[in-house]
Amino acid sequence: RLLVIGDSCVDRWTVGPATRVNPEAPTLVIEPGEVREGPGGAAAVAFIAAGLGVDVHLLTAIGSDAAGERLQAMFSRPSVMLIGRSHEKTTIKHRVCAESNGHGLQQ
Predict the structure, then answer these.
(1) Residue 59: what pLDDT?
(2) Which of 38, 11, 39, 23 has the alpha carbon at shortest distance from 96?
(3) SS3 letters for 28-54?
(4) 10 Å Cβ neighbour count for 15?
(5) 98 pairs with which residues across the strands?
(6) Maximum distance among all alpha carbons in the chain?
(7) Which of 8, 9, 18, 50 can bridge 60 by disulfide, Cβ–Cβ 3.0-4.6 Å?
């Protein structure tokens, strides 16, 4: 058994092609495309441990909002018991990534 205690969040990636370089700063301009989500923070640790067959209890606070519902739905496995709800919003870590000619991602 494993008890994971810590902050959890939803990891969100927006992936799309880089259309050009911003003329005002050395950054790429990304055309939004596919959006991916997964568990982040302590939730990612619990998710990975459950995938290895460990009986996991996750003690964390997630909000009573749409992101919190999605995070809770990611833990539909019987080996993960999610403990904790909050009246605060669930943290979302959002990354925007450029496709790299189909050979990976650039952040």
Answers:
(1) 87
(2) 11
(3) EEECCCEEEEEEEEHHHHHHHHHHCCC
(4) 16
(5) 16, 106
(6) 53
(7) 8
The two three-digit tokens of residue 48, written as one number = 């990975």
The model's pTM is 0.75
Written as six digits, the tokens of 46 are 């619990």
* 27 backbone dihedrals φ, ψ, rounded to 5°: -130, 155
Tokens 């992936």 sit at which residue? Answer: 15
The helix/strand count (H/E) of the chain reads as 2, 8
Residue 88 near residue 63, CB atoms below 8 Å: yes
CA-CA distance, 75 to 4, in Å (whole number)? Answer: 14
Taking alpha carbons only, the member of 89, 105, 97 closest to residue 10 is 89
Q: φ, ψ for residue 67 (rounded to 5)?
A: -65, -40
Looking at residue 73, the DSSP 8-state letter turns out to be H
Instruction: Tell me which residue has tokens 């969040």.
Output: 9
